[in-house]
């Protein structure tokens, strides 16, 4: 039997944020789109990443709020945790979004093919059930999976990655988190707030690499105050499960050991390129497994793009969205501007939250800029005191002008209450390459947490209202 490939404008391998953003954007523009997805559309972000992780962090926030209710004169029973209910709520949120996404894809006339897709010559994508699809264009958006480390085989019981943490049936009384990056810090914060005794083991000299030092220092102080043990500059060498299988002893540093109920391996994510086929194509994969692309996300094969975690750009869902749409815009013949990865927004939802766009002070200096910086703590912000979250600060990094004043805003780095929701105007300022003089006249509503950003900007013009 000779199979004839089904023809589409675009065939997308992978239905995570990068793949589904491309599908929705292309579908809206009238392109005939096929998505091949081996698990569930929504990808890591919806099923094993952003959404379930943030839902659990919100559970932790509710627990913190109830625990601290007495300060507000609210009398509540000492809170307890019914983790099965927390899991059920997380799943409800995920499922509702999943249903919505499937409905939207249908509405945009996107055809979804279940299975693993492999790309061969002439834009032919073969699904593992034998279905053949040919796209005028193809987008590779196969995403990433958690990295593991030798000696820490994931068993879903004692050794977990983010995939297993989000499916836990009960909370461990103690945990080691290997890796103090964004995801590691989110899990450490969540587990600690929900009552686990947490130790972070980080190989680098500080946690949250990439964050401004003043910002990371606030998180470190808060974590330590809440009893999270942070050990930096240490390497883990292995672990030894107890005979009863209920705990394991992790070896690290200079012969040190710690016994815990769970080890969370959070050492980054690797691109999932090994199932892509690619024989007979000019698509290249680098030594780390990333699909090679130019700044327009074009692979070596004409008409084949790659987007999201499968390319070596920041592994963020919203970067995947932007890249998926950028690929489609090129198919539509639009004039496009490549994504400026130095200025994308970053949000970390540990407590206290972190949010930034643009260069940290250290990165700006390393890049050769002479800088003027200003910090304003949330401790002086009325709303922060009202909500009982005074820890944190806003730091603005500007390029120094010839007369020594604060010029173009290079970066805004924030840590504190709800900063992930306050990043918008900071993000615009950085991306518009605005100066403090241009931003200062914009009035901030009072009393809001966002006044701290406004105050920092005003101070940079030499006319701070409350900040010197
Ligand atoms: P993925 O989401 O990994 O999707 C790829 C899809 O392709 C998957 O559904 C997979 O099943 C499918 N697939 C793979 N190979 C094939 C194949 N050959 N054939 C068919 N289907 C295939 N990012 C943020 O921006 N904000 C956050 O707060 C955030 N929190 C996170 C928290 C955690 C715990 C984790 C793990 C990640 C988090 N991320 C966050 C990162 C974010 O989830 C990823 O950057 C994003 O999901 C990448 O999107 P993607 O489409 O490139 O890949």
Automatic annotation (TrEMBL):
Domain FAD/NAD(P)-binding: 8-324
EC number(s) from the headed UniProt entry: 1.8.1.4
Location of the protein in the cell: Cytoplasm
Named cofactor requirement(s): FAD
Top-level EC class as recorded in UniProt: oxidoreductase
Keyword Cytoplasm: yes
Textual note on the cofactor: Binds 1 FAD per subunit.
Keyword Cell cycle recorded: no
Family annotation (NCBIfam families): lipoamide_DH (TIGR01350)
More info: The active site is a redox-active disulfide bond.
Annotated family: Belongs to the class-I pyridine nucleotide-disulfide oxidoreductase family.
Name of protein: Dihydrolipoyl dehydrogenase
